[in-house]
Amino acid sequence: MALCDKAMLIILKISQWSGRITDKSISAKIAQEHGASQEAGQYRKNALADENLKKIKQTANAARTFHYENTLPWQDAGARILPAANFVAYKTKMADFEREFDYAVSEFITHYPQAVENMKPVLNGMFNPDDYPPVQILESKFRFVSKAGALPDSQDFRCEISSDEVKRIREEIANDIQTAQDAAMQDLWQRLYDGIQRIATSLPKFDPTKTGADRGTFRDSLVDNLRDLCDLMPRLNVTDDPKLEELRRTAIADLTEHDAETLREDESARNDTAKKAQELADRMAGFMQ
Prior knowledge:
Radius of gyration: 26 Å
Number of helices: 10
Helix content: 55-70%
Low-confidence stretches: none
Mean pLDDT: 88
Order of helices and strands: HEEHEHEEHHEHHHHH
Strand content: 5-15%
Distance between the termini: 26 Å
Structural class: alpha+beta
């Protein structure tokens, strides 16, 4: 099946008001005090410290992270490839993010006037009412859009030009799609390799018999992140790459058997997992080269 039959393009656009303002008057004053040029730097101040504004930012960041984890790169900077097998899971979770985002924006707008008042004693002489846009304008600065579109198909190209030119353009489109598909799969290979390599390098550095920096450390998420990636990969494997699927299954069987706490406490399990991770990373490196 062609890539356009198995996947689509997805665009995520999130805009928000940061609440951080470049204060030109303070910047000029600082430059003057130090005998510096106006181009030496700028002073950025937090015009607003509000929990709802922080929640908006946190939700936006989480949505972007999920978007990149659950899609594959496309040749254009804005759009990414969303395999059809991952469409329902993607749209369901993205709808949750959008609801969280909209609710946080609603709460922020509701409490915005009081939040501005609360900043007067915080900023004191740096408080400037012109830094705060009216509510109507402020609302327009927040936007959350996830939009799907079709991947191009070289066979759909039609135009009243010579057949030779049509053939050339179709070949160009087909080559572009193939290049993008190869890059997308390379990205998926790299994700798995990176997850395996992190285990291979982190576990040998951990020594519970030592103290301080010599003891080494690794997070609980070390294994959980690899397990989550392996669960997601079948939905992103748009070419049904059998070698990648084999390596994914091996990673699950050999590297996610023990949780982080067990790996810290059980030296034998830790050493065995580290050895298997390095062997698997070496195998992948050979294929990727």
